[in-house]
Structure formats: structure tokens, C-alpha cells
Design brief:
It is a single chain. The chain is mostly helical and about 280 residues long. It has 2 domains: about 5-120 and about 240-270; about 135-230, no CATH class. About 70% of the residues lie in helices and about 0% in strands. Strands 1-2 form a two-stranded antiparallel ribbon. Helix 1 (about 5-35) runs antiparallel to helix 3 (about 55-85) and helix 5 crosses helix 9. The chain is elongated and about 80 Å long. It is found in: Membrane. Its main location: membrane. InterPro entries: Tetraspanin/Peripherin, Tetraspanin_animals, Tetraspanin_CS, Tetraspanin_EC2_sf.
Length: about 280
């Protein structure tokens, strides 16, 4: 039986919704893949994981978003076909699948919020990460090779133009200084040349290594080459920003999907046949 006038309106709106729905699926897929594939994000998350025992939640939320994005294409198929054929059966499947995807995305948002609460970077960065910085070998000046922690922390120090967790003095008395007494601080604590390797910089990558080292040795000396702030706040702000993106996208798309459920119910009510 043909749909009523109101159902015809719902049918049209359902098509428009599904177009937006497909775009939201692309957004979910893109953000999820970006968080899992971007090398700089992966390295910075490794820094965060040093200070946090629960280090898999960000990856888990990203995977949930990717799965949700992929599921949107299947859900959209049932929505389009159900609207075209005015089939209550297909629309019923569409509604069920949409509710499932919506539930998964809400779970992703809640998980991200829980992860944010458990992360407690402000307290843990000054304990675990500071301890790691003090005790890790970081760099071997003889071989010119970086320890895994040194590689990832170089990324953080370059990304946020910082040195140490709370400042360059974090390296005082560290294993790094004991093993490299002539260096005192990693090269990544200094301004690097354009195009230099942020992950494994060498002395030749530093704009002015001699001046940077002098600025470290002389506390009262104006800091022009040495990164004078610690990485603590930069890492906290970065991690929170990524979590806000995940929370906003997951909950925003879930709200959009709720509108799709309402439209599908509206269309079903206007179709005279039983499910």
C-alpha cells in the first residue's frame, strides 16, 4: 500500500538523512583510522602510556569508531531500500541496526570519558614519567643510538617545544647525564633545524648546540635555543584534545542517528501493511 502524505515526507527526509549519515560514516572511519595510523599520534600516545596503566582505551575507542563507520554503510543500505520499497520489514531491520550502531557509539563516548577520568595525567606525569626520564638510558652518545623511550620522548619535546617533564632540570642527576656527561640534555631539548629528524636528532640537527648547552648550564641566561618549559601541560592538553574529538564525534553522530530512528518510525506508521 502506498505511503500517506506524511509518510511520503518522512520518506524524502529519510533519503536526505541517509546522505548525511553516509558522510558521518566517512567522518568516523577517517578519525578512527587517523588516530590509529598517524605516526606522530602513535608516538605521543606511547609517551602517555608510560604514565598510565590503562593505555589501551584510546586504541579501543578508535577501533569502535572504525567499526561503527563501516556499519553505517550497511545500515544506510537497509534505510534506502526500506524507504524506496516502503517495506516495514526492511525499515524494522534498519531501526534495529541503527540502534545497535548508536549504542556502540555511545559506548565509545562513555569509554572515552572514563578513560579521561582514569588517565589522571596531571598527577601521573610527575611520578611515573618523571621516574622513567630519570632512570632510562635514553641515548648512547658512543653509538649514536636512542633507547625506545628516548625516541618517543624526542617527539614530545619537539612537538611541544619543551624539555623534560617539568623543565630541563629534570635531567639533572639522570641516567642520561651519567651516560652522556658532555651532553647534559637531549638534542631534542633544543631548537632543531627545519626538516631535522624529531625522532632521532643529532648534534648537526640543532640550530645552535653550543648556545643551547650554555643556556642549560646557566639558569639566569635568557633562553633562546633551549626549550624552557616542561612537557607536562603540553602532553595533558594534547591527550585531552584528542579525547574531546572522540567524545564529540561519537555522541554527535549518535544524536544524528536518533533522528534517523524517529524518521523510520514515522515512515513505518504511514505504511498500511504490518511488519
Amino acid at each position: 500500500m502506498a505511503a500517506t502524505c506524511g509518510a511520503s515526507c518522512a520518506k524524502f527526509m529519510l533519503f536526505v538523512f541517509n546522505f548525511i549519515f553516509f558522510l558521518s560514516g566517512v567522518a568516523l572511519l577517517g578519525i578512527g583510522i587517523w588516530l590509529l595510523a598517524d605516526s606522530s599520534i602513535i608516538d605521543l600516545m606511547k609517551v602517555v602510556s608510560v604514565a598510565n596503566d590503562n593505555n589501551d582505551q584510546m586504541k579501543m575507542v578508535s577501533i569502535i569508531l572504525i567499526c561503527s563507520g563501516a556499519g553505517i554503510f550497511i545500515v544506510g543500505f537497509f534505510g534506502c531500500c526500506g524507504a524506496i520499497r516502503e517495506s516495514k520489514c526492511m525499515l524494522g531491520v534498519y531501526i534495529i541496526l541503527l540502534l545497535v550502531v548508536m549504542g556502540v557509539e555511545i559506548a565509545a563516548g562513555v569509554l572515552a570519558i572514563v578513560y579521561q577520568d582514569k588517565l589522571d595525567l596531571e598527577g601521573k606525569l610527575n611520578t611515573k614519567l618523571s621516574t622513567e626520564l630519570k632512570e632510562d638510558h635514553y641515548y648512547n652518545s658512543t653509538s649514536g643510538e636512542y633507547h625506545p623511550f628516548g625516541l618517543i620522548f624526542n617527539i614530545a619535546q619537539n612537538e611541544f617545544s619543551c624539555c623534560g617533564v617539568n623543565g630541563s632540570l629534570d635531567y639533572s642527576g639522570s641516567t642520561f647525564q651519567k651516560n652522556n656527561p658532555d651532553l647534559k640534555i637531549p638534542y631534542s631539548c633544543c631548537k632543531l633545524k627545519t626538516g631535522a629528524s624529531a625522532r632521532s636528532p643529532k648534534e648537526t640537527d640543532v640550530v645552535n648546540w653550543t648556545k643551547c648547552l650554555n643556556e642549560y648550564n646557566n639558569i639566569s641566561m635568557p633562553k633562546d635555543q633551549l626549550h624552557k618549559v616542561g612537557c607536562n601541560q603540553g602532553i595533558i592538553d594534547w591527550a585531552n584534545e584528542k579525547l574531546y574529538i572522540l567524545i564529540g564525534v561519537a555522541l554527535g553522530v549518535a544524536a544524528l542517528e536518533l533522528f534517523g530512528v524517529v524518521l523510520a518510525f514515522w515512515l513505518c506508521r504511514g505504511i498500511g501493511e504490518e511488519i
